[in-house]
Amino acid sequence: MHPPPLPALSARQLWLWPRVALVLFAAAVIGLMAYLRQSEREEARLVLISDVLWIEQNLRFQFDQTEERLRALLDAARKNEVDEAGFAARARLLAETNPAIVGVRLSAGGRRWRHGVDAEAAALDGALRFARGTGRPGYSDVLGPAGYTAVALVDGEREAVALISLPKLLAQQVPWWFATKYRLAVLDGQGREVASKSAITTEREALSYQLTFDPPGHGLALQVTAYRAPTGTVQKALVAAVLVLAVLVLLSGWRLQRQIRGRLSAEAALREEHAFRTAMGNSLAIGMRARDLAGRIIYVNPAFCRMVGFEADELIGTLPPYPYWNPADLDSHQAQNEAVLAGRAPQDGFESTIRHRDGRLVATRVYATPLIDAGGRQRGWLSSVVDITAQKAAEAREREQEEKLRQTGRLIAMGEMASTLAHELNQPLMAMSTYASAARKLAGQDERELLDSTLVKIGGQAQRAAEVVRRIREFVRKRAPHREPGTLDAIVADALELIEPDARARSVRLTVELAAGEAEIEADRVLIGQVVINLLRNAIDACAPLDAERREVRLASRADAEAVHLTVCDRGPGIAPEIAEQLFEAFFTTKPLGMGIGLSICRSIVEQHHGKLWFEPAPAGGACFHVSLPR
How far apart are the C-alpha atoms of 512 and 394, rounded to whole Å? Predict the structure, then answer.
């Protein structure tokens, strides 16, 4: 049986008493902190008073020493032991022992000596009268804005006066430790500050203490102010901490009540969320696979199971090599697995070919990301596996279609050059016919040497015709791209043999400057040759509307440490800016009968060789097309 629930009043009381106790505890702590703060402030005040008395005694000691030295000076004057040089020496000694003394004056036997700063006689009358009347040292008021005061001693007709700078006195006698704690100031009878150790202002509520400094007198006082009055920072922090803790406890109790009521609903929501995430993972078309840090599979979704043909319970818990790895490519699979587990998987993913349970191969792209738990610790790796088999097939068809376009471009180029090439073939054939007729005649005349040379010439012409036919067949026939070592200049030379007849037929001068030399490149000779022929054909077409003397196409090559470069320039009308961006697009053309695939194919071929194709306006008019191929 379940215990009966507590009455509502008892439940409230159960939560009320801890809160009341907590409030009382906080009040007690605050009272204690206030008492401690007051005690600390009183203790700091006592320390301040003690320090003030110490510094006051120190300053009085300096004045007493000055008075003794002035008495010694008067004694020497009474004994007539003082002359001009002796006074100067004694005055310097007096100033050296107390750097605050800025001036000394002695009157004796009707003579007067001065050293350093001298004060007006009127300012010293009060101090001198006091000294004559009492026989003790007399002190003057504060003299001027510089903060000077004078001490005077009188012995009969002899008078000795020392002028003391109060600011210098404070700078000399106040130690550094005192200045770091307090600000010391000397006030006159009207409460004005005449000298201070520091110009730094103090807080309004800072601890301060003031005592009279008389003598030396006429209302002087010392005022000491602490830079930082005891603020009770620690106590305040503790009080704040207690208050915060009290609030936190109250909030914790309130949240505990809510948590008890909402725990079951939270668990229900968690189950619902888990079911939702499971349904979401099951509905994905992308395969999901999770592995721990050792590479053990801990989760797969249905899409991944369909991709490999294995059930989830067959895969979970397995370690490499996994059953869906391609046996013919285990080394590659192992290297990719180690890269992922070491955190070196590329961000853009990597391709991997796996084997379905029925034996067919599945091309995939895998993206790996760390698997982080709720505590922020990495527990493994989560991989998204995308089936790209159809994409690979589409890319293969696209490459095949691109190759067909290339072949079409070559056929179009050869069709445009057919008549010129026929003329080129006609020349060696006509020469062979002429040499054959001559050979028959020479055979009847028994001229063996002439007959041999004629037959050699026939063979040379036949070889020339065969070479032309071979190059045409090699250029036109469809075949897979094949890269091999070679030089750009050799490829250009082969292309020139095919294009020169057309240039001559159209009265276009070809200026060739080949400087690439023996710099080798890995290239498909036929494809790069197609690029050269297309660029030369376009340049020749651009020159066709010009006058015969201006029809010129310049072809140049060069090489550097990183690449070989080819430039084809014409003197035609150039390329308008509005069509420049479309120039390399497929099926865009400026020719009336053009198909618009030549430059597009050329750029595709060059980029397939990891090179670049671009154009620039020619300095003398026309356009220059540049090809750069890496070495």
Answer: 42
For residue 3, name the pLDDT band (cuts at 50, 70, 90): very low
With cut-offs at 50, 70 and 90, classify the pLDDT of residue 421.
Answer: low
CB 568 within 8 A of CB 554: yes
* Region 271-276 average pLDDT: 71
**Can you read off the two tokens belonging to residue 82?**
């003082």
Catalogue the E-assigned strands of 156-236. Answer: 158-165, 182-187, 193-196, 208-212, 221-226
Which pair of structure tokens corresponds to residue 497? Answer: 């043999």
From the list 567, 562, 561, the residue with the least C-alpha distance to 613 is 567
DSSP characters over 561-600: SSEEEEEEEE-SS---HHHHTTTTSTT--SSTT--S-HHH
In angstroms, rounded to a whole number, what is the distance separating the alpha carbons of residues 176 and 196?
14
C-alpha distances out from residue 358 to 307, 314, 362, 388, 531, Å: 11, 15, 11, 18, 46
For residues 80-119, b (16+ Cβ closer than 10 Å) or e, as one string? eebeeeebeebbeebbeebebbbbbbbbbeeeebebeebb
DSSP states along 37-70: HHHHHHHHHHHHHHHHHHHHHHHHHHHHHHHHHH
Query: Is the Cβ–Cβ distance between 387 and 362 less than 8 Å?
Result: yes
* 8-13, Cβ contacts within 8 angstroms, sequence gap of 24 or more: none
270-284, 285-299, 341-355, range with the lowest pLDDT: 270-284
Cβ neighbour number for residue 27 with a 10 Å cutoff? 12
The model carries a pTM of: 0.35
| Cα–Cα dist 154/162, whole Å | 12
Nearest CA to 209 among 37, 48, 56?
48
CA–CA dist 606, 566 (Å, integer): 12
Contact 503, 540 (CB under 8 A): yes
**What integer is the mean pLDDT of 423-445?**
65
SS3 for 311-343 is CHHHHCCCCCCCCCECHHHHHHHHHHHHHHHCC
| Residue 251 burial by Cβ neighbours in a 10 Å radius (0-12, 13-18, 19+) | exposed
* pLDDT per position as a tens digit, 249-272: 767 767 766 776 677 676 777 777
Q: What is the largest CA-CA distance in the chain?
A: 168
